[in-house]
Amino acid sequence: MKSLLIGEVSNGSLSAGTLEIISKLQENSLEFNLVVIGSEEGPSIGSDSFDVTYIKVNPDALSLSGVADKISEKINSDGIELVLASSTYVGRDISGFLSVDLNSSPVSNVINFEVNDSIITTTNSIDGGESEYYTNVTSKVKILIVRPKSFEPVDVALNNNFTTLTIENNDLTVDVHDIFVEEKSGPQLEDSKIVISAGRGMVDVDNLKYINELASKLNAAIGGTRAIVDAGWMPYSQQVGQTGKTVKPDVYIACGISGATQHQVGMKDSKFIIAINKDEEAPIFQIADLGIVGDTLSIIPKLIENL
Ligand SMILES: Cc1cc2nc3c(=O)[nH]c(=O)nc-3n(C[C@H](O)[C@H](O)[C@H](O)COP(=O)(O)OP(=O)(O)OC[C@H]3O[C@@H](n4cnc5c(N)ncnc54)[C@H](O)[C@@H]3O)c2cc1C
Predict the structure, then answer these.
(1) Containing domain of residue 13, as a range?
(2) Is there a domain that residue 180 lies in?
(3) Where are the alpha helices (DSSP H) in the chain?
(4) Nearest C-alpha to atom 28 of ligand 1 is from which residue?
(5) Is the distance from the beta carbon of residue 268 to the nearest atom of ligand 1 less than 6 Å?
């Protein structure tokens, strides 16, 4: 089955979500090409094992409908039957446009899939990760939106062997008034081996200085619950959970987090979970490998001191 993966660029290379889907495609010996969307100059995203087309977009005037048109043309001309995208803002938006162009419903929240002749059977996650269901996708072009962290990312040798396609902005139908580029520094949530997350049990925004200090000692990324994101303590890009990011680090340290289902969905697959909470009945302890019952504000400074 001829497949097309819609990938993304992150820090001059392929994003973690893209590498995860490549791993699944290679494991199943599926023939595929890659279309990568990004605005970075000279990324290293090419490969000798598969064809890569870089759709370079102007970040000042991003028109995803124009990008989707180019991808639809490629799908039709190359006889593509399976289209995959990671469940990111870009992946979900592009899949929406493609579904209209190709008259095919995208299947979202895919955590696994199998190819049986011309049918794809997907495993989908629902109820905040509590249940799974299966879908037989029989449409001519099948569009799957894959949930991040569903597969282990592959380690591929990347080079500059790719074709670049620049999208002009002629078909732009929105007026861009302002652009906010999120500053990224230090380890990122999606890739870090250690994640330290804060919840309302940090008591006050000023106390996040302890989380920052602990994170810098452990070279960890910082996340948070929706409660503290809503309170304006942390930007939404750091929210972990059902309506935030899914993380799967080696170690997840939950500081003052109750462990609501919606938070657990985004972190319960972490390899080792440490929870600090003053309430020994807090649900987070049900999934923690190591639980510390006590006050975050006395335990975390002690941890920092000992480290
Ligand atoms: C549709 C929907 C989607 C949602 N999506 C998300 C999501 O993506 N991510 C997410 O996180 N939430 C999400 N939520 C919200 C979720 O239900 C919880 O409300 C939220 O996770 C609670 O955050 P919290 O643990 O910081 O706060 P709380 O639930 O208030 O817990 C605070 C914890 O801190 C402990 N504590 C207090 N003081 C201290 C102290 N000094 N020392 C130690 N422990 C202390 C308390 O015992 C308590 O367990 C969603 C909700 C809905 C309805």
Answers:
(1) 3-166
(2) no
(3) 16-27, 64-78, 89-102, 208-218, 226-230, 261-264, 284-287, 296-306
(4) 258
(5) no
